[in-house]
Amino acid sequence: MNVKLNVLSAGALFFLGQAAYAQKTKNDSILKENKIDEVVVTGYQKKKADQITQAQAVVSGDAIRRNSPTTSIGNSLQGRASGVYVQSATGQPGSVATIMVRGVAGVGGSSEPTYVVNGMYMNARQFSAINPADVESISVLKDAAATAQYGARGANGVVVVTTKAGKAGKTHYSFESKFGFSEKLKDNNFKMMNSRELMNFQNELGYLNVEIRPQKEIDALAAYDHDWQKSLLRPSSIQSYLFSAQGGSRESTFYYSLGYDSDNGILKDVDGLKRYTGNFGFTNKLSEKLNVGINVGVQYQVTQNIRDRNNTQNPFAAMYKYAPYEPIYNPDGSYNQKMRAGSNTVEQIRNNRVEDQRLRIPATLFAEYKVIDGLKFKTNFNGLFDWFMSTSWMKKGSNLDLTTNKIPTGSLSKNSFYGFNYTWNNSLNYKKSFGKHNFDFLGFIEYNDNFNETLAASAYGLKSTTLSVPSITTPSDRNTFTGAKIRNTLFSLAGMVNYDYEGRYLLTGSLRRDASSRFGANNKSGIFWSTSAAWNIAKEDFMKGGFFNDLKLRASYGTTGNDGSLSDYYNVANVGFDLYGNGASLFPGTYNKDEKVYIIGNPNLKWESNAVTNAGVDFSMWKRRIRGSVEIYQNKRKDFVQLVPLDKQEGAYYQYINAGDMSQKGLEAELSVDVMRKKDFQWTVRANISFQKATLDKLSDGQTERNLGTTYLKVGEAPYVFYNVRFAGVNAANGNAQYYDKAGRITETYSASDAVPITDKTPFPKSFGGFGTTIQYKGFDFSADFTYKLGGYTYNNMYAAAVDQSLAKGGRNMAQSAADMWRSPQNPGVFQRVDTNGMRDSDQWIEKSDYLRLRSLTLGYTFDKAVLGEDSPVSKLRMYVQGQNLFTVTNFHGEPEVSIGSGESTALFVPGSFNLYTYPTVRTIMVGMQLEF
Predict the structure, then answer these.
(1) What span, in angstroms and rounded, lies between the C-alpha atoms of 317 and 813?
(2) Residue (of 243, 236, 222) closest to 264 by Cα position
(3) Residue 126 is inside which H or E element, if any?
């Protein structure tokens, strides 16, 4: 099945067919037209839609809730905005999403955008804890005209979140509740063997010296047959509740909400997530000149976790590795610890616990004073308190305890973190019109301070097998206690100017200077700027009376920076202490536990900058029934930061350096069509698509190539191409695997030294997007949203292991397709015969990860006053059913979307480059109720 053809055909026929129908329908009783005077958040300012000169995408709170039946807000952006590539990091309840705005950012640091929530800077995990029901809108800023206002934090794009606020008028109360379940998606394009299939397959592996089982033994073991996925997994239970109130008067407004979310996850014996949220916002007009306001939130959540690694401590690995004839329990009820693939994962789950607690308190205080007509002063203080506690418990006498400590010992570890991040912004805003000339000036000073402290303690020798016992630990020379303090600051001066002539011709400019503590002493400061222009052609006299309602041309150019790719204190030379044996050793550097290397400081480290050119057109026509935009852009990223090894004569340490330049270019398009706009029947279809291409332009010190292990950098090619030995197929005469050597000659001798850059394969898709429809008929509403990606590749570790005959010899289970191996020249099958080395590392396992997915589907019915009665205290009642990830079309063997291979593989930077046994993607079904009164 050709996934690319399916995606293009489904999208084109679905969308274009409805657009054509919309043009033929002439006799609709047209509803009130969509207005373009809606106010849109553009970062530090708000503008009307026809005043915007920058590239950005806006997703409404309603769309977010419709696309987010789960507890992760980041995933709700998937397929909703062009140029914004979103993948689920894992399927774990509450997990963060991997979000990239206009492609990969550099080749050595994070591609994560900057998250700004009500003016407060947050990281991805803090952003993911926001209750989707509290969100009014999300604006994704993409070009320099939009992101240069954020200076050093704008190079990877900016996600600006505005939460709900009070509104003058009668108090409106709402209550929303939903219940449902989720379950693991079925494995795409393969199925694991049952007991008889596995043992019969093992009996065919005589060439690997597998001992043949007699039929009597097969029959006896087959009696224990079970499906490990069914034995370990369950349908999760999901609950969500939110109560909110919104209202106010001319002088004051308020909004508050209380929420609770629970998702116990699909893994038995593990309680996935419980989250409690609260939000309170209040504004008050103290006088005709002075407005003040406050917004305070509380987010507390508890999660239970499992080891996310490539062994049977991870149940999602165990369920593929265990043989189906191996039982969980022995006949006497004790745990079976004789599984060939590893120790008993059920016993591990129950006796080795990991629980995380998180508390976040974001707060915003502001005061705005009208100095004179047109001139306002505003001071805005944002603070975020963030606390985290992780508790790991190894039960005394558990299998892992006896394996590591030899005698019943037990251990308890606690890792805590607390931080306070605050931003203080003081601004002057002056607006003035001279006839048809309109000016808007904004200048501000901003200071951001991030302080974090970590404490870690481990104790060995527990008094009891029960964790809740007071004073459970005993004194031991193995007990440890460590900690660290980290602080970084950013000081900014910025100015922005907006000019328009009669709303037809628009010019904007911004200038920002940032000074960051993260950069070398010789390069502390950076200056970033942008300029943009737009022409509202539809407002010209010669366009009046035509079928275009809106037509705007836009162009922008500017520079932004990126300090998010750099860890703290790697810009200075440090001395670190480490234990070796019984003594302490000095190292001229700081130890990085994730990279497992010693890093020396670089006082010459400078800003990574991004110069962005963008051109776009926005349009609507036929009474704004058809609306859309098209963007083209080019990014020139200079001096990207990367961690590289120094020469051995320099001590074989590592150092962050400005490692090179790269460029990106792309095209984005969005289109929305109102097929029907009658009083009782509205039908809208929508679609977006993005094309992206990145090229590595330069590496430092004259290098042209750099090997990163699984992936590779080569000047003139896309960043992160795969680096592998090339597979040349199976020799039909003898069943041996064939490979290409470096010279391109076919050989049956495998050598890892024959690995080469595979320049036509990278983890990043060439195109991605989404399409969907919304229908409202009287009280009924229906919506469907599809997402897709095309042109990306993933190294499929899971499938390679599932068909590796040598692992079947070791007692592991196999995919049914493993039996499709070479048996004779007349029956060549698909897979080679292996020797004791098993399936070798090659591009045989690099698979195209294209997919088309029904991301969400919702059907609801609303009872209004006409049904409930004018005297009813309830103004609106909506009942609905909602599903997520209902089906997937892909040729990939397994899950094509999950972006990380292993949660404990912290060095992974490239999303989707390989898969392993992380928490799988789930299908979710929910029923809900929304009550307004």
Answers:
(1) 11
(2) 236
(3) helix 124-128
Residues 909 and 901 sit within 8 Å (Cβ to Cβ)? no
> Are the C-beta atoms of 499 and 447 separated by less than 8 Å?
no
Provide the token pair at 282. Answer: 């209040």
- Residue 188 pLDDT greater than 70, yes or no: yes
Burial class from Cβ neighbours inside 10 Å (0-12, 13-18, 19+) for residue 866 reads exposed
User: In sequence order, which residues have a C-beta less than 8 Å from that of residue 446 and are 6 or more positions away?
Assistant: 423, 424, 425, 426, 490, 491, 492, 494
Q: What is the largest CA-CA distance in the chain?
A: 97
pLDDT on residue 909:
56
Calculate mean pLDDT across residues 174-181: 94
pLDDT of residue 30 exceeding 80:
no
Question: Considering only CA atoms, which of 632, 692, 707, 631 is closest in space to residue 662?
Answer: 692
Answer whether residue 824 shows pLDDT above 50: yes
For the stretch 34-44, pLDDT in tens is: 444 577 888 88
Measured CA to CA, the distance from residue 616 to residue 879 in angstroms comes to 40
Arithmetic mean of pLDDT, 92-107? 80
Q: Is 399 helix (H, G, I), strand (E, B) or coil?
A: helix
Count how many Cα atoms sit within 13 Å of the Cα of residue 132 in the half-sphere of its side chain: 24
Q: Alpha carbon of 697 to those of 634, 759, 829, 897: distances in Å? A: 13, 15, 43, 29
Please say if the pLDDT value at position 838 is more than 50: yes
Please list the residues that pair with 285 across neighbouring strands: 291
Burial class of residue 580 (count of CB atoms within 10 Å of its CB; 0-12, 13-18, 19+): exposed
pLDDT at 530 over 90: yes
Q: Phi-psi category of 613—alpha, beta or left, where left has phi over 0 and alpha has psi -120 to 50? A: beta
* pLDDT of 29 over the 70 cut: no
Q: SS3 letters for 402-452? A: HHHHCCCCCEEEEEEEEEEEEEEEEEEEEEEEECCEEEEEEEEEEEEEEEE
Residues 753, 755: Cα–Cα separation, whole Å = 5
Count other C-beta atoms under 10 Å from residue 334's C-beta: 10
Q: What pLDDT is attached to residue 71? A: 66
Alpha-carbon gap, residue 567 to 575, rounded angstroms? 16
Find how far residue 342's CA is from the centre of its chain: 32
Q: Which two tokens stand for residue 905?
A: 């593989």
Helix axes 195-202, 215-222, angle to 10 degrees: 150
HEC-encoded secondary structure of 178-195: EEEEEEECCCCCCCECCH
Chain length of the chain = 933
Q: What angle do CA 732, 734, 739 make, to 5 degrees?
A: 70
Q: Distance between CA atoms of 430 and 374, rounded to whole angstroms?
A: 5
pLDDT above 60 for 94: yes
Cα 930 from Cα 933, distance rounded (Å): 10
In order, the DSSP letters of 228-249 are HHHHHB----EEEEEEEEEEE-
pLDDT at 913 exceeding the cut of 50: yes
First to last CA, the chain: 50
**Residue 133: closest CA among 204, 207, 66, 195:** 66
Order of all β-strands in the sheet with 846-848: 846-848, 793-796, 914-915
Q: How far is CA 704 from CA 105, 129, 407, 696, 717, in A?
A: 19, 42, 55, 10, 10
Mean pLDDT, residues 455-471: 81
Which token pair is 371? Answer: 């100095």
| Cβ atoms of 791 and 767 closer than 8 Å | yes
Q: Rounded distance, CA 605 to CA 519, Å?
A: 6
> Phi and psi dihedrals of 635, rounded to 5?
-110, 130
410 with 395: CB under 8 angstroms? yes
Other beta carbons within 10 Å of 167: 14
Contact (CB, 8 A) for 347 and 395: no
- Residue 484: how many CB atoms within 10 A of its CB? 12
